[in-house]
Amino acid sequence: MVYLSELLNQPVRTAQGATRARVVDAVVALAGPDAADTPPRLHGLLVRTGWRGPGVLVPAARFTRLAPGAVTVDAAALPRDPYQRGDRELRLVKDLWDRQVIDMASQQVRRVNDVLLGPPGPPDLVADAPAVSTPPGEWVLQGADIGVRGMLRRLGIPPRLARRLGLRVAVHLVPWAQLEIVATGVLGTDARHLDLNRLHPVEIAHLTEQISIREAADLLAALADTRAADVLEELPADRQVDLLEFLPDTRAADILEEMDPDDAADLLGDLPHTRTAALLAQMAPAAGDPVRMLLHYPDHTAGGMMTTRFLRAATAWSAGELIRRLREAPALARATLVYYIYIVEQADHDRLVGVLSLRELLLAEPTTPLTALMAPAVRMVTAETAAAEVARIMAEYNLLGLPVVDAAGAILGVVTVDDALDVLLPAGWQRRLPRVLG
Amino acid sequence: MLPDPAAYSAAPAPSPLNRPSGRGLPGRITRLRRRRWWPYLAALGPGIIAAAAGNDAGGIATYASTGAQFGYSMLWVMVVITVLLILVQEMCARMGAVTGKGLADLIREQFGLRWAAFATLVFFVANTGVTITEFVGLGAAAELFGIPRWLAVPPLAVLVWWLVTQGSYARVEKLFIALSLVFLSYVVTVFIIQPNWGTIGHALVIPDLTQLGAMGYLSTLVALIGTTITPYMQLYQQASVVEKGVTPSRYPYERFDVIIGGLFSNVVSIFIIIATAATLFVHHQQVQTAADAAKALEPIAGPSAQLLFGVGLFGASMLAAAVLPLATAYAVTEAIGLERGVSFSFRQAPVFMGLFTALVALGAVVAMIPGIPIVALLLFVQVVNGVLLPVELIFILLIANNREVMGRYANTRLFNGVAGLGVAVIILAVLGMLVSLVLVPSG
């Protein structure tokens, strides 16, 4: 096996001796989507005689030997046609070297310093390995070297020198199965082979902070809708707005539908009005209508903080009936707050009459009517109530949720404790001066 | 959103994103629609501050000695340099907004590791020089107050190191910025002196090449370029644009900030040249020490001119003495991919902390060397900056022209014409200076 940096600029030798052509790049062919974890096969090397042009592709099978100082082909004549990128082909120097990749093992974004090519199978890092018996035609891209050693090799600095300076010079090889390219470029989704949905949203959000906004939006677009929504909700508001700018309307609408309505409303409210209108039009009514309703309320009021995903029950029901309905309906799976269930008078436009905790519901006899279980004196606020007042009430009465009602007492939404916390913590204006000192 | 732990396979780790969520923006009203001019004002912040703090020891020394040595004859040069500065900074800001990446990252991705290493090395050398000048400036300021250098510099160096690593630097930063605004008194001085505005206007607009052969003209020219268009400012500009998350749609406001910042800082520099020209040049006095530069403030401050100047010099030098070594340490460790951050200990981030400490120490040591010609040393560093500048400018021009990277925001032909011409002139000036140094060794 050999590192790409050891092959670059090497003269190509034939049986007659060295030609004037030099290696300028390597091309690998990505495996099909069904065999995504298979390392890409070495398709060939790009060699070039002059200074211009991409060079010609010499297929890997034509090489009898690939080693530093000994890049040998079997035939006398090299192909002539300039290289044109085929389907699922990746150029290593142009598209992978010095680019950012995600190392799934450490969930970090790193830069590729060097690339290891070799026979299929686990990468054998024993230096001075004997000459490989596998012909280059069957070689694959074994992994990317993201360590300092790779950097030194590229710069031509012997490792001994760096060791004296105290730098760790071990080879840090990330196998292909753990690698995800950040900037997919022309290849688009073909280049993605790992399931980023496996990562925790906070980890994905952290990854997006290490790459450019455009690439982060790309990454977001590649996730499943629900996961993308979770990731978006983990990011600061200004970052959310920036990312949304680079997402096409259909994709953005899909993700917004999965977000909590109050978070979606916050985000939409920060966008230019034309974009907000366009996205609302794209969203399904079931998701779009609550968001539209919430958008009417100013920030820093109960209406601006509340969510519409809460649990409500009719006064006529019994405990058993409520549990049965909760199991059947999707409301339970999507509710932001499950610890309180709000009892409403359905005949009177869902006027809020009481609240029941989940604990009480589970402990009750199934036949008990909810009106007997519920606490009728419900703390509630109107939609115009100031955010600070909302937070004060929740803190004083130790509430996880505070219902918001209209003038007639009908329930509109619920403010959850995490949003109240945001008010209480000293957030203030985020000053946008550059953080010169990191 | 209340987290539901069961939904995820692993227990959620504490969030590394310790920025408050969601509530910083002004409510449902969009930022862009609020008031037409508000975004412009909001974008103005960093430019003005960078401008006010941009006149450090090296800058003052260069501008003061230019005015004292050549009178008004180089004012037109400053106008040209200002235009170039704005063009260069605009390119960097545009690259940052379009790609969302820093300059070093872009160089690496477009040109490969070897060129990126070279660019980082150039940047490192230039920054080390400037770091040294800041500590030299601190020493000079101390001496204006009557404190010998060897007594004042070590505690100040330790103070700088300690403030930064303890994270309390941001609090005192404002104090130093306020102190450095003292240099605005050069502007006031000019108005007190009442120079001949006609002559000045003429000198600003009409190129005057009569002094071209004079000794020191070319090296002063290169020093002016190097101190006004510092290599540091390009990385900083692009990094701050990326940090703010400026996207192409919001870029016009950022461009405004770049232009205003460049104009503002260079207006102050031009006034420094006018002030020293009107006070020192007319009496054929050179600027060789800090006290000489302070003399130009006598019209406004009388006998306290030296104290006034010392206060400004102290503030400006303290500011830059912290920022420069830190930015350099960040740039180098980021290029290699090692741990970095002032909250790390020496064992956790050895290269970063080691580099930062070494740069501060080096600056302090050089500043204490007895008998160094202060102004000459400061000028020398600016000349080195000027010589190294074309390297960075060529990288910037190449990337800003790359359609694959910049899309429809790549340089227009007109922009390239002007910027390319400017870079060519800079290279000519540098070459001319180097050639003249070889031919006339005493140059």
Describe the structure.
The complex is a heterodimer of chains A (438) and B (443). By secondary structure, chain A is an alpha+beta fold. Chain A has 3 domains: 2-93, no CATH class; 196-296, Alpha Horseshoe (MgtE N-terminal fold); 311-424, Roll (CBS-domain), CATH 3.10.580.10. In chain A, 33% of the residues lie in helices and 22% in strands. Chain A has 19 helices and 20 strands. In chain A, strand 2 and strand 3 (17-29) form a beta hairpin. Mean pLDDT of chain A is 85; it is low at 427-438. With 443 residues, chain B is mostly helical. Chain B has one domain (45-438): Up-down Bundle (Amino acid/polyamine transporter I), CATH 1.20.1740. In chain B, helix 6 packs antiparallel against helix 16 and helix 10 (217-228) crosses helix 17. Chain B is globular, with a radius of gyration of 23 Å. Residues 1-38 of chain B have low confidence and may be disordered. Classes of the chains: A alpha+beta (438), B mainly alpha (443). At the A-B interface, helix 3, helix 5, helix 6, helix 8 and helix 10 of A face helix 1, helix 5, helix 7, helix 11 and helix 15 of B.
SSE topology:
The complex is a heterodimer of chains A (438) and B (443).
Chain A: E1 2-3, H1 4-7, E2 11-14, E3 17-29, E4 41-48, E5 56-59, E6 63-67, E7 70-73, E8 89-91, H2 92-96, E9 100-103, E10 108-111, E11 114-118, E12 140-145, H3 148-155, H4 159-164, E13 173-175, E14 179-181, H5 201-208, H6 213-222, H7 225-234, H8 237-245, H9 249-258, H10 261-269, H11 273-282, H12 285-295, H13 302-305, E15 311-314, H14 319-328, H15 331-334, E16 340-345, E17 351-357, H16 358-363, H17 370-373, E18 381-382, H18 387-396, E19 401-405, E20 411-416, H19 417-424
Parallel strand pairs in A: 2-7, 15-16, 18-19
Antiparallel strand pairs in A: 1-11, 2-3, 3-4, 3-8, 4-5, 6-7, 9-10, 9-14, 11-12, 12-13, 16-17, 19-20
Helix pairs in contact in A: 5-7, 6-8, 7-9, 9-11, 10-12, 18-19
Chain B: H1 38-54, H2 57-70, H3 75-99, H4 103-111, H5 113-144, H6 149-165, H7 169-180, H8 185-193, H9 197-205, H10 217-228, H11 231-244, H12 251-279, H13 290-295, H14 298-301, H15 305-336, H16 350-368, H17 374-401, H18 403-406, H19 413-439
Helix pairs in contact in B: 1-12, 2-10, 2-12, 2-17, 3-9, 3-10, 3-11, 3-12, 3-17, 3-19, 4-5, 5-6, 5-15, 5-16, 5-17, 6-15, 6-16, 7-15, 8-12, 10-17, 10-19, 15-16, 17-19
